[in-house]
Design goal:
246 residues, alpha+beta, two-stranded antiparallel sheet
Length: 246
């Protein structure tokens, strides 16, 4: 091989490596997941849960996303006793230790996470929050802030405008791109569940960067956190936006 060919090959290899590095940087890595539930759909198949029995059309979770949780990737039950882990897996969440929160966070969480009526915050802290370096107050404060940003976006507007109607994946991804920048919709997965013959949208899981795991994320832009995550497949391609009530 001539010196010219070697230089050409070397240059080509360098460009491939550089391109791969740029692609990785642009794509980022998903370190956290923001799980946002569409509560009316969840309640269709969990009607006996306290938060579902009390759901009403005028309540916040009837027309807004609810906080399910903020999950560190590939970590759970960090430093949790075997007894607590067993109680959590049995679903008896009110037997788990009460989570210590400020009055302000407790009030905000009760609105953002109606599942607190069933001890969901105890489960989320034991399984996920304990794996972060944050206090419980900061951990839930970040979650409340991020789901609030989602509810202030074109994504929530799309859902609220289509209650009782089907919405396609393309429309949801476009709403994410509109509010959180090009490619944001590629960092979201949608889950659906069936109630009778109707396939309903039950949850969005949104990829976030490592910065979501710090107390400073309580004032961070959701767009930046999403853009720093890796891409994923969207999952369910279409579902109905369920209305509150059974």
């Amino acid at each position: 091989m001539s010196s010219m060919q070697l230089r050409t090959l070397s240059f080509a290899v360098s460009m491939v490596i550089a391109g791969a590095a740029v692609a990785q940087e642009a794509g980022g890595r998903t370190r956290f997941i923001l799980a946002a539930s569409w509560q009316p759909a969840f309640c269709q198949t969990n009607q006996k849960k306290a938060e579902c029995a009390t759901q009403a059309t005028e309540r916040h979770d009837a027309t807004n996303f609810s906080l399910h949780g903020l999950w560190p990737m590939r970590q759970d039950y960090c430093g949790v006793s075997a007894d607590q882990k067993a109680a959590d897996k049995d679903g008896d969440w009110n037997k788990l230790p009460e989570v210590t929160l400020s009055d302000e966070t407790k009030t905000a969480l009760a609105k953002a996470m109606p599942g607190t009526q069933s001890g969901l915050e105890r489960h989320e802290w034991v399984k996920h929050g304990a794996c972060t370096k944050m206090s419980a107050d900061d951990y839930f404060g970040v979650g409340v802030h991020l789901v609030g940003a989602l509810n202030a976006s074109a994504v929530r507007d799309l859902f609220a405008a289509n209650i009782g109607k089907p919405v396609k994946a393309e429309a949801i991804k476009a709403a994410f791109d509109k509010s959180f920048g090009p490619g944001a919709g590629d960092r979201v997965k949608m889950s659906c569940r069936r109630a009778g013959n109707i396939r309903m949208i039950s949850e969005l899981t949104i990829g976030l960067s490592e910065a979501a795991g710090a107390a400073s994320a309580k004032s961070a832009g959701l767009a930046d956190l999403i853009q720093g995550a890796g891409k994923t497949s969207f999952g369910c391609d279409e579902g109905v936006v369920d209305a509150a009530g059974f």
